Amino acid sequence: METLLEVKDLNVSFRTQAGVVKAVRGVNFKVNKGETLAIVGESGSGKSVTSKAIMQLLPNQTATYDSGEIIFDGQNILEINDKKMEAIRGSEIAMVFQDPMTALNPTMTIGKQVAESILNHNKNVTKKEALQRAVEILELVGIPEPAARVNQYPHQFSGGMRQRVVIAIAIACNPRLLIADEPTTALDVTIQAQILDLLKDIQRKTGTSIILITHDLGVVANMADKVAVMYAGRIVEQGTVEEVFDSAEHPYTWGLLKSIPDLDADEELYSIPGTPPDLLSPPIGDAFAARNEFALAIDYEVQPPMFAVSETHSAATWLLHEKAPKLSTIVQEKESVRAKRKGKKNLTLAQPIIQVRDLKKHFRMSGDSYLKAVDGVTFDIKKGETLGLVGESGCGKSTTGRTILRLYEPTGGEVYFNGKPIHGDLKKSDENTIRQKMQMIFQDPYASLDPRKKVLDSVAEGIDIHKLAASAKDRKDTVQNLLEIVGLNKSFMNRYPHEFSGGQRQRIGIARALALNPEVIIADEPISALDVSIQAQVVNLLKDLQHKQDLTYLFIAHDISMVKYISDRIGVMYLGSLVELAPTDELSKEPLHPYTQALLSAVPTPNPKIERGRERIILSGDLPNPINPPVGCRFRTRCPYAMEKCGETPIWKEAQPNHWVACHLIE
Amino acid sequence: MTNSTLEKYEKTNIEKNEMNNFDHLFKEDSFKVVGAKKDSQDAITRPYVGIFKESWLRLTKNKGAVVSLVVLSILIILALIGPYMNEYTYDETNYEKAFQEPNSEHWFGTDKFGRDQWTRIWEGTRISLYIALLATVLDLVIGVLYGSISALVGGKVDNVMQRIIEVLVGIPNLILIILLIMLLKPGIFTITVAMVITGWVNMARLVRSQVFKLKNQEFILASKALGASNSRLIKEHFIPNTLGLIIVNMMFTIPSAIFTEAFLSFIGLGLQEPLASLGVLINDGFKAMRNNFYLLLYPAGVIVGLMVCFNLLADGLRDALDPKMRK
After folding, report:
1. Mean pLDDT across chain B
2. Which residues of chain A does B327 touch, with a Cβ-Cβ cutoff of 8 Å?
3. Measured between alpha carbons, how far is A137 from A58 in angstroms, rounded to an integer?
């Protein structure tokens, strides 16, 4: 196959106030015509910088190319002048950005934006022709009625539709290389499935090569032909998608794959310890050594070269050296020691600790319209269980959690805690009890801690409010104890939040929630802002705490694979109402509601074999506007089985024992 | 892939000399599994410094801010003790000694009526500093309270309070003063009244938007979930997180308030002779500029010093208190 792009020994560094950050440190890869290369890595691994270097989009003032070549179609991009680069950018190499909300110009019609890139690169095309071509391209990317919609502005499109427009702009000049930088990260799963499908379709039709930058291994398994795994500015492993997923050689890749939950495996989730290194002063030797259980002495001294495993597969680890002990034998030893996941809890007889009955929360919007964020949900949370709540953005799952906790005043409905009502007006003493028994963990580890407070004061806040500490020493001891429980060094207590990484801050947030010895913890997307390897650490911590302290969780998330891993039962929400609630195994094996089926099918699994063979249910269209939701069953506008009867609101019923669903298909 | 083919690839694909390059680095136990380094992983290397202490350290690194602080201190001390350093008062005339150049008796010379310029300048600076103090107090008391009440209560109350502010902003300062002069005499009282009416509006708006932003932050929700009362939220979270903004904005309001007073006095709408204000003095000096330039030079120098120093200090404070500047 012909090589389209070759990156040779690329080194990029940034000058910052704190010093020089070596963001990319000797990256080599090739992209052939018509293939998809996925670059995977955690935040700060240098994957985006690499892609921007190919586009020459790095800021001139701060970024420097220390060495290396980027050869596109026979010429070195790093050496050609700006004028020539402008001709290549957009017509030969095009880019799809992460956030469709900011990638489009809000003051230009989308037709003009697509036509602009055609006009820029083709001198002899008239405006009319360009606009005509824009309509064709918009049709190709699946914009309905493109001829009418070319004159609309970006704000008239939903997120998924905007991303289609962004892709239309990128492919307008038939680029030979398309760089997609986290193209689906800002989108919901069902929309993500549509966009990934579209990218594949475009590749089939136009034969373009794609470089896909992502952190989601499921997306990689779904899309890529070849994979390059980046860590701390270097590619640590590359190969075909099967080679990397089935026989990973680098311990980092291996750990990354293991830290994604697999429903069949009955063991504790693997988590890579620690945090990525600071690239202001990259470590000597293998950057991953300090987090690597299998690090060899030499890893701390000498940077490992790329060892070839096959013609296409290579990895940078000393474990592949002929003198090194065989990885498989070490792994087996370690595996046998690893804790088995505790057997499934039997919770069928457990008492409900929280009962939610027809809970409603409506927000008043401008004028007399109401956003019905939560519109009549009914469920129980049993003592000691983890109830997962999943759904796409805007489905009301976070609002449900916050309303149960009385952070929002419910518009209607009832909530009982241990059989006692906790809605409506409460006595001060009752309210205080609830505040102690129910706690919350928040999504954004950066926003959930007061930047002006020491860790000690943040964690001790609940203790102060309820005056639980007898003395200052008592208070300090409690906090130290809590920090140790969540796996942090107790000397951290005199520091400020900004000194910690995302995962560490999330642990501080958990310690704060634990300070009052709660019985129920509502975890609102606690891992969605964290990197994959850190996610596993936090999930393991939560599981461990549940076991030790007999906690009950309401785990709210949009990442279904993680919810499946941690939850005993799962509730699925769509547009403010619960559509299905069932034990985890039952829900994943036999989903009853068409939305659940589509949602489960839309989630890409990190296994290329499954991804290749699987038929996906791809929902058409976007989420309807929650201010004016469809009458009757809210899912009927996107439901493949919609029928006349769906105009009536379906009843929430127990279709099978413990399996609740709201759908007219199930009688 | 089986082990035999794997070894074959290793042998064929890695050039022998490349391997040899590393051989000299290998020690006997180079290939022993030593595992992850436990201790260094979560260590944070930066020493611990408190937030305000660090801000102070950063402020003292800013040369402009330090010089401004020194100059301002000197000006304030002179304003306090200057008028008592000689026997003259600001309105004591002596027609025999009119228009004297600076000399050992009159350090800054005398004006057209033979009044001692030194005493008058520091009297004038006192007026400017009074205005600075007034602006500060108004900002802190009315501005901060108004803004935070508006944001914290929200809803209809906020709506009404913001409409009131919009009306106040809509009236230009100069028009307001002229209207007030129709009712009152021109002078420091009139300026005070004018500032009480409009001087705090910007601060109120800024505080409101900051509190609104904070209100939806997750750490406030976390505090509520822990059962914090409103007064605790205000004391523990809202005030510490808006303090930097308040200080910086206040420091920028001061020079503009000083300037407004001087300007009004200069055009005759502010303080009236024989009272001294930097604006009045500059107006006097301006009229006698051709023959007695010193009459313009000194008061102009003082007001420039005040303005520049307050601005530089405000700039330095903004950088020092900005959490984004923290590394």
Report:
1. 79
2. 17-18
3. 29
